[in-house]
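REQUEST ID: PR-0412
SUBMITTED BY: lab tech R.K.
PRIORITY: routine
TASK: structure prediction, single protein chain
INPUT:
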Amino acid sequence: MENTEPPIRTLSPGRVYRNEAISARAHCFFHQVEGLYIAENVSFADLKQTLMYFAKEMFGEKTKIRLRPSYFPFTEPSAEMDVSCSVCDSKGCNVCKYTGYLEIMGCGMVDPNVLENCGIDSKKYSGFAFGMGVERIAMLKYKVNDLRLYSEGDVRFLDQFKAAF
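STATUS: complete
OUTPUT:
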């Protein structure tokens, strides 16, 4: 039986573990927010505009983004999204590997086969998905130059983020 219920909009937070080296810009565990949007006539342009809006709202109007082709198993086409580095104002630093940009998420159009396997008519509906690391977003938002500081438990570092009430 065919599912005729889209549009679908979801944001799902969670903790992620990866077998990778720990550095100033990467950690073996982090928190991620994944998003999915499915409706009629959704295009890559919709994805790009959504991401641009997010970046400017999060990091400021002068923020630039770039989308680089990539591969993810359930999206096609897929991209990595970079934002201009707010830690160094895009001049180049160890956080952005002296490029002026930092990758903050993977994204792409949901593969039609995924939709069909979920009982969604891929001729009628399309959509996009993304996943972003919360710590890296906070790193850029608050100009933190070392991602490891979030997991070391140093109260002096953490106290600066207390909300003022």
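NOTES: The helical segments are 44-59, 112-117, 134-141, 155-159.
REVIEWED BY: pending
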